[in-house]
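Lay summary. Proteins are chains of building blocks that fold into shapes, and those shapes determine what they do. In this project we predict the shape from the chain. Here is one chain we studied, written as its sequence of building blocks.
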Amino acid sequence: MAKFTPLAPARRGTAEDPQILLDSYNTTIVVFTAMIKTETPLRALDEALTELAKLYQFRSLEARSYAGLTVSQNYTLRDLYFKGPRSMSELAAQLGVPLSTMTGVIDQLEGKGLVERVDHPEDRRSLHVRLTGEGKKLYHAAHDAFLGHLAPLLEHRSPAESDRIIAFLGEVTGAIRGWREAISRKERRDGKDHP
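And here is the predicted shape, written in a compact code that computers can read:
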């Protein structure tokens, strides 16, 4: 009867230095290699962008810094803060949501006293949405706090390096926008409303 001899203790191998073990009869070669995560720059960019989106999109509404605002409400306040009063259609287009969704967002913000509907200055049949004093104060404080956390990223960089970073982020945004538009064109071409 053949005697079973266990394999020699394994040591972790690498792609450059695989571990080769022989069984007790020297008839079977067993090769162990470490699972090496091959991180390409493209994959690293994908991971970084995904993590960034998750940090922002899946935040806690209970956090004081967000004052219980959803992502859609925050984007709407931002748009109104920087661009001034807008029509419901303009706000919906900016956020990329149906007008009915934007109506719900504005209803919620209005209920919190952060926005108000006012007569459109050029068209009496429509309304504009604008920030209230409380809405301006809230968004200003939240935005300043956020910028305070971003500032250290640029403080010790040269203006040229900062410009390259900002330009790259603009290119990333353009690439993602192009990808989304290509999907929309394909869906329209194929007659599909949803992916």
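What the prediction tells us: Residues 4-15, 26-36 have pLDDT under 50 and may be disordered.
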